[in-house]
Write a structure and sequence with these properties.
Blueprint (H helix, E strand, L loop, with lengths): L2 E2 L5 E10 L4 H11 L3 E9 L5 E9 L5 H9 L4 E7 L4 E12 L5 H10 L3 E5 L3 E8 L1 H11 L4 E6 L3 E4 L3
Antiparallel strand pairs: 1-2, 2-4, 2-5, 3-4, 6-8, 6-9, 6-10, 7-8
Length: about 170
């Protein structure tokens, strides 16, 4: 059920359904901070039911056993369910927005790379372009690594969201 991050860390995906109330995310984050559990990425948004939110956490199980993380989460009153999503049994996506140096001499190379990865150019300046790309975390890692030689000016990734794959 584990996946491995780019640094070789063992990562697991937790999907946590919580009551959509003020302070719930803060309590979850505080619980992890107090126990020195490492959160690799975190995304949260309301579900199909506006009274509930889904928190998708990618956690580093080298910082603490997964079972301990789940037991501690389960003690929080606003947590309704916790599901571990195996990467092979889940659809996982991230969003990346990156500004990359691209003067006119190399701009065509960067645009071609964006096309290969099915990204979108969202803004163009004289010396740089801004690109948006959605996909599996590994795809975004590959794209980011190929852009580095051109010069990444700024980058932001959302963190993973995931749901179980349909059977």
């Amino acid at each position: 059920m584990a996946s491995f991050g780019t640094s070789g860390t063992k990562l697991h995906i937790l999907s946590v359904v919580v009551e959509n109330k003020a302070g719930v995310l803060s309590r979850v984050a505080s619980l992890f901070a107090r126990r020195a559990f490492n959160i690799h990425s975190l995304a949260v948004a309301p579900t199909e039911d506006p009274a509930l939110s889904r928190i998708t956490m990618v956690v580093d199980v080298e910082s603490a056993p997964l079972e301990q993380m789940v037991m501690q989460l389960d003690k929080l009153i606003n947590v309704l369910s916790i599901t571990e999503l195996a990467p092979s049994e889940a659809v996982q996506r991230e969003l990346l927005i990156v500004t990359v140096a691209a003067d006119p001499a190399i701009r065509g190379q960067v645009i071609e790379l964006v096309g290969v990865f099915e990204g979108r150019i969202v803004s163009v300046g004289l010396e740089a372009i801004m690109v948006s790309l959605e996909g599996a975390p590994d795809k975004l890692d590959d794209f980011e690594n190929l852009l580095r030689p051109y010069g990444i000016v700024a980058i932001q990734r959302t963190g993973s969201i995931a749901l179980p794959r349909l059977q």
